């Protein structure tokens, strides 16, 4: 699934490499926007996907990816290095996980 670069679906924000960081969220979610802003303000290189802007197979694949780390499929879910998931806006945990 390559969603990145497609309008309003998945995007890349350039910054300092702190590992592979992907934030899955909803375009209408306040906590998702706060998480995206935190990552941007930290200057971290990351990708983000607004799952509610996807359709069909793309949406199913994104939901399954989130479910691997977060069985309740709630948002935001931030996945770091395909190993750790941070569910919700948890500023301290995000900072610590990224070495800040």
What percent strand? 15-25%
The SSE string, one letter per element, is EEHEHEEH
CATH H level, superfamily name:
Glutaredoxin
Q: What is the residue-mean pLDDT, rounded to a whole number?
A: 92
Helix-and-strand structural type: alpha+beta
Q: Uncertain spans, ≥5 residues at pLDDT below 50?
A: 1-8
CATH class: Alpha Beta
Counting DSSP E segments of at least 2 residues, the number of strands comes to 5
Overall CATH architecture: 3-Layer(aba) Sandwich
State the major sheet. 5 strands, mixed
Instruction: Give me the Rg, rounded.
Output: 12 Å
Keywords for this entry:
globular; Thioredoxin-like_sf; Glutaredoxin; 3 helices; disordered N terminus; single chain; 22% strand; alpha+beta; five-stranded mixed beta sheet
Q: Your description of this structure?
A:
This protein is of the alpha+beta class and 100 residues long. It has a single domain (10-90), classed as Glutaredoxin, CATH 3.40.30. It is built from three helices and five strands; from the N terminus they run ββαβαββα. The chain has helices at 30-42, 56-69, 91-97; strands at residues 10-13, 21-25, 46-50, 77-80, 84-87. It has a five-stranded mixed beta sheet, with helices on both faces. Strand 4 and strand 5 form a beta hairpin. The chain is globular and about 35 Å long. Disulfide bonds join 29-32. InterPro entries: GLR_AS, Glutaredoxin, Thioredoxin-like_sf. It holds the Pfam family Glutaredoxin. This is Glutaredoxin. It comes from Methanosarcina mazei (strain ATCC BAA-159 / DSM 3647 / Goe1 / Go1 / JCM 11833 / OCM 88).
